Amino acid sequence: MDDFLKKFFPKVYIRKNEAKENNYCKFDDQKLQLFTSSLYLAAVVCSFIASKCCKRFGRKRTMQMASVFFFVGVILNAAAEDLAMLIIGRLCLGVGVGFGNQAVPLFISEIAPARYRGGLNVCFQLLITVGILIASVVNYFTSQIHPHGWRYSLGGAGLPAIFLFIGSFIIVETPTSSIERGKKDEGLSALRRIRGVDTVEKEYEELVRATEVSNRVQRPFRNLMKKNSRPQLICGTILQVFQQFTGINVIMFYAPVLFQTMGMKGGESLLSAVITNAINSACTFVAVFGVDKFGRKFLLIEAAVQMLVAETIIGGILLEHLKATNTIPKSYAYVVIFLICFFVAGFAWSWGPLGWLIPSEIFPLETRTAGFFFAVSMNMICTFIIGQVFLSMLCAMKAGTFFFFGAWVAVMGLFVVFLLPETKGIPIDEMNERVWKKHWYWKRYFDEDGRVKDIEMH
């Protein structure tokens, strides 16, 4: 929004309107990048605290904490009078993201039956994409309200924070979390309520046994560093790296910037962002129904090919037709928009939701919160890096930026083909025996009888 840029980033506003300014460098500003990326820096720092809160206070209480930080951040952002206040608000939002991303995927994985776990976890990503879509629609309409439309846009984020806060009091704590904190009766009651039947004794006893093993683990973070936990740790964290280095957040963060770089006006660029976000939401539905039908690996590999094709062609078009001070021909601009939507569609039914689903289901109970902490932290670190350097990267590499991300997509596709095991329909407590022990490479980290090596117990 021009009013927002004029108030907080006047140098960017001036450069944006200068015809002689390099198309790729109009928005290159460290403060603007810090505004975007500071949220994820706070999320990284708070992920460790959030993982401890998940273990000590439960998933439900951690979500309540997240909602409070979200609401504080919204108030500060909507009322901001200077850049410092704006950044502080973003940092508070980042704390909320750190707590929410730690608690919500674990909550879903622990309440879901194995046959529905994939689809329910994908709903987490689906609702995120719906939120992004709604935000882009709000941005489009509030950009026409001068001069304070941006305040309404930032303040609107308070509504989902309120829903999260109220909802966190309605839901039940997961049986696993209740049992591991010594509240076995609450765990049994929660399991009966979630399953809708009273005859849950067998599943309950399995949860109790698994939790007792988990509670005997002395140092979950140290155990996570041991050789026996390396398969889950590597796969869980590398998926987060790959998810961000697809370049998706270049599209999500800076879609209006990219479209304005191609010569579109502010309103047109915001509308184009709405279209790409609508594609993002719609195609996530494919993952909801397809993840437990086609499996994790198929969706990831297909999407890697699709995204690689899209980014390579986009890079080629920009390299040939978008120079320093011209605007791209309209026909090619529409092709680029189509290819961006094609790219987003592939991400939406694969790397977006599965980047969260797989780490939430591959760690055994004794290292689950610690393992998921590392996965969430890696995601936030990579998101921070992308948010902080992309505009400078676009200025320096120009169209080559898309070739850079395309190369990452090629690497991650090969990783999935050779090193990522399929986890479709496998109960979490059977992952070691049925997945890791049978994988051609990762089986070397397990004894011949399938037991995990070297877990420290007390």
Automatic annotation (TrEMBL):
| Similarity annotation | Belongs to the major facilitator superfamily. Sugar transporter (TC 2.A.1.1) family. Belongs to the major facilitator superfamily. Phosphate:H(+) symporter (TC 2.A.1.9) family.
* Ribosomal protein keyword on record: no
UniProt key word Calcium: no
Q: Which Pfam families match?
A: Sugar_tr
Cellular location(s): Membrane
UniProt-recorded name of the protein: Secondary carrier transporter
Q: Which residues cross the membrane?
A: 32-50, 62-80, 86-108, 120-141, 153-172, 233-257, 269-291, 298-319, 331-358, 370-390, 402-421
Gene Ontology MF terms = monosaccharide transmembrane transporter activity; symporter activity
Report the GO terms under cellular component: membrane
InterPro entries with a match to the protein in the record: MFS_dom, MFS_STP/MST-like_plant, MFS_sugar_transport-like, MFS_trans_sf, STP/PLT_plant, Sugar/inositol_transpt, Sugar_transporter_CS
- Location, primary (coarse class): membrane
Q: How does it sit in the membrane?
A: Multi-pass membrane protein
Report the source organism: Lithospermum erythrorhizon (Purple gromwell)
Domain of life (superkingdom): Eukaryota
Taxonomic lineage = Eukaryota, Viridiplantae, Streptophyta, Embryophyta, Tracheophyta
